[in-house]
């Protein structure tokens, strides 16, 4: 832009175009403006480049100028003017905001979109991104990323479209995401309104969350709008057309909200549900401390029903149930622990401790099936609890119909890893003798041959 204005000042264009502009203003009933421009030029001839922008944003004048309607028939410098104006237009075309901003008098498909992604300065960008960050994430979570993107762009198009309708003769280059963000604010207000959501706040070294009605963000957005309107500069930032984006966003949200199942805002309750869950969990712990086991069992049972995959809740229920080792619940919960498939070390330790405890206190007798014991033996062998795995294999070995092949292979392999070759050979040989046709027996042969 600096190169373009410098060229304009050094060219013949001010000498040719400024008189035409003054006469245009006079002929169109703008005598005060023409007189003011003339007086300014008399005091400072260097103001001519500034008129470049004044003329450029006056679309009717520029149309007549480019069409040659303002020149006298005997104008002899048309070729010079044409060449210099073409060169100036080429320089202006290299200015990003000038080329890709939206000029209401010259709307184009590309600029209707591109103007939403340009900003005048860091303050303009920061203000818009702050508002988008505060409200956009909840709207996106409710609508889904794809619909959110489409609706965001539609709101920006509506904002630009309203500007084109209101100012059809304006050559002012409008830029900024504010119109699209106004649409997001419209969606936000309609979707959430007085519904309470969590807001993050920060005060120097302290930060926390508060729950407040979503609509509280509307005044924050309006404050940003006033800031942009009065402090961010009037020449390239679109402020007055934002009502189009706001109304478009609100209308989109109304249509979506009335569509059955289109908006999922249940995630807004997740933090509250989690807080309630934590309160009930702490109440359950207090009941255990007070030896009020029936109430503790009820609380942890309800919590476990809400989160059936929570291992900690399962353990809490088991610890309470084992006080009644003859109860059906104790047997069922111990079975659930043994059926866990998590591979972390803590889970294996839990299963090992539960196995030992269950064998010790279960009444009137243990109820685990051979299938459960077999799976447990394999897990213990793989995890290094070889003594316990060996005991389970010996127990299962008393059952003539039990298929011990997987457990024997796991145990023999585990002992081989521990460099206990005698034990490894013992169980691998037992595997071959008892299940000679199994695939595990083939692996046992391979291990023994390599060891030999």
Description of the structure:
- By secondary structure, the protein is mainly alpha-helical.
- 69% of the residues lie in helices and 4% in strands.
- The protein is built from 23 helices and two strands.
- It has a two-stranded antiparallel ribbon with strand order 1-2.
- A hairpin with a 2-residue loop joins β1 and β2.
- α11 runs antiparallel to α12, α19 packs parallel to α21 and α20 packs antiparallel against α21.
- The radius of gyration is 39 Å and the shape is elongated.
- The termini are far apart.
How many strands? 2
- What is the straight-line distance between the termini? 84 Å
N-to-C order of helices and strands? HHHHHHHHHHHEEHHHHHHHHHHHH
Share of β-strand residues: under 5%
Structural class of the helix and strand makeup?
A: mainly alpha
Total of DSSP H or I helical runs spanning 4+ residues = 23
* Strand line-up in the sheet with most strands: 1-2
Largest sheet: 2 strands, antiparallel
Unreliable runs? none
Overall mean pLDDT score? 84
Give the fraction of residues assigned to helices. Answer: 55-70%
Question: Over all CA atoms, what is the radius of gyration?
Answer: 39 Å
Using the alpha-carbon principal axes, give the shape.
Answer: elongated
Question: Quick summary of this structure?
Answer:
By secondary structure, the protein is mainly alpha-helical.
């Amino acid at each position: 832009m600096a190169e373009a204005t410098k060229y304009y000042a050094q060219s013949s264009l001010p000498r040719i175009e400024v008189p035409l502009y003054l006469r245009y203003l006079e002929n169109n009933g703008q005598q005060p403006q023409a007189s003011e421009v003339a007086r300014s030029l008399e005091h400072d001839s260097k103001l001519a480049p500034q008129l470049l922008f004044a003329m450029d944003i006056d679309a009717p004048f520029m149309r007549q100028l480019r069409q040659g309607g303002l020149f006298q028939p005997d104008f002899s410098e048309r070729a010079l003017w044409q060449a210099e104006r073409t060169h100036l237009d080429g320089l202006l075309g290299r200015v990003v905001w000038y080329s890709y901003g939206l000029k209401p008098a010259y709307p184009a498909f590309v600029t209707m979109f591109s103007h939403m992604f340009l900003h005048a300065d860091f303050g303009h960008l920061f203000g818009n991104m702050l508002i988008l960050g505060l409200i956009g994430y909840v709207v996106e979570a409710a609508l889904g990323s794809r619909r959110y993107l489409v609706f965001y762009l539609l709101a920006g198009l509506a904002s630009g479209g309203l500007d084109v309708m209101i100012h059809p003769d304006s050559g002012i280059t409008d830029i900024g995401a504010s119109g699209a963000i106004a649409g997001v604010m419209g969606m936000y207000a309609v979707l959430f309104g007085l519904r309470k959501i969590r807001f993050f706040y920060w005060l120097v070294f302290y930060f926390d969350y508060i729950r407040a009605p979503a609509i509280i963000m509307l005044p924050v957005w309006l404050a940003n709008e006033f800031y942009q309107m009065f402090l961010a500069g009037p020449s390239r930032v679109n402020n007055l057309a934002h009502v189009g984006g706001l109304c478009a966003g609100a209308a989109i949200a109304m249509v979506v909200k009335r569509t059955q199942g289109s908006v999922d805002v249940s995630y807004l309750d997740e933090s509250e549900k989690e807080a309630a869950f934590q309160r009930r969990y702490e109440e359950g712990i207090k009941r255990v401390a007070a030896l009020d086991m029936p109430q503790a069992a009820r609380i942890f049972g309800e919590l476990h029903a809400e989160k059936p995959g929570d291992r900690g809740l399962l353990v809490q229920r088991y610890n309470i149930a084992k006080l009644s080792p003859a109860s059906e619940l104790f047997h069922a919960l111990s079975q659930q622990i043994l059926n866990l498939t998590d591979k972390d070390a803590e889970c294996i330790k839990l299963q090992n401790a539960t196995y030992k405890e269950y064998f010790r206190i279960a009444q009137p007798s243990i109820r685990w099936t051979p299938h459960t014991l077999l799976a447990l033996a394999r897990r213990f062998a793989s995890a290094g609890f070889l003594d316990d795995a060996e005991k389970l294999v010996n127990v299962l070995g008393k059952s003539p119909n039990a298929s011990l092949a997987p457990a024997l292979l796991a145990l023999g392999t585990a002992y081989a890893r521990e460099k206990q070759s005698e034990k490894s050979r013992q169980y691998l040989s037992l595997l071959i003798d008892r299940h000679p046709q199994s695939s595990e027996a083939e692996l046992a042969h391979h291990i023994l041959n390599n060891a030999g």
